[in-house]
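Input sequence (303 aa), recorded before submission:
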Amino acid sequence: MPLEKLIPENFREVLAAFLFLVGILFSFASLWKTSREHNLRMSGLFLLASLLLFSHNPYCYFAGLFIVATAVTQLEFLQNLAAIIRGSKEYFDYKKEFLSQREVERSIEKEIKEIENATSEPKDAENQDIKTLEIDVKNLNASKFGVLVEDYTFRFLEKKYQRPIQRYVRFTGKGKFVEFDGIVQMENVDLIFEVKSSRKGQLPLSYASQVIKRLITEVKEYEGLTKRSASLRFVLIGNYETGYSTRLVERVDVFLGETRDLDIIVEIYTFEEIGLPDFAVIADNPPEDMTSRSAVPKKPSAS
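Predicted structure, token format:
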């Protein structure tokens, strides 16, 4: 290679070479754990700036503007800017965001504890046939148990529906927000998934009824925000008998009333079916296969 090609021809190339060297220095500095994240970010910014100056292309400069901005400004500002450039009116009607890992863990831990507290209450007449059994979950707290079960459940459901499921999504707009465990946005209808389980292997009927009643309201709010049709999949993981499933479906019919304007399907699976045989709950009378047990949809299923 001729030596002349290594000599900068103008100030832009001199600056690009300088930024490249600074970026390399920061990359070496990132070897120290105390400031690794900060140094890696600085290294990336300097190397990016160097490449942009070397390329000297307006499209690269424009892309670099957004890349650099993600490191120095809030994501919401960039989303608004991108929506304006695209001319997306729908974006300002509602926003979709994914919950952070910490938010997911807190939400699941709270939910599991609520379910277990409800399960430990005295059984009423309608819950007499519920058989609970503590699962051996050594070193597995409510949060870890819930995250593990939901992860395996979504893997199972993705295989069943042959579609990827967006997990832990929040929709906000018009002073309201709704959160769902999972969602599949399709062309004609969106599938909304709510997964419930317990370390006791059961979900009291009264609690399940309250959850479904709340979900009906939230799914309708989702339809109002997004102007899209939705179908709810209420997924239970545990040890449930036929009588429980039948009464829960009857509750769904009562909640829907005469409107019949929402599709709700109740799906029940055992821990073993979703791939967690170690969590299998053994009752005095093992329940029959519940893989296909579901409420009859009020309109044609989207799956």
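Checked by second reader. The longest strand covers residues 176-185.
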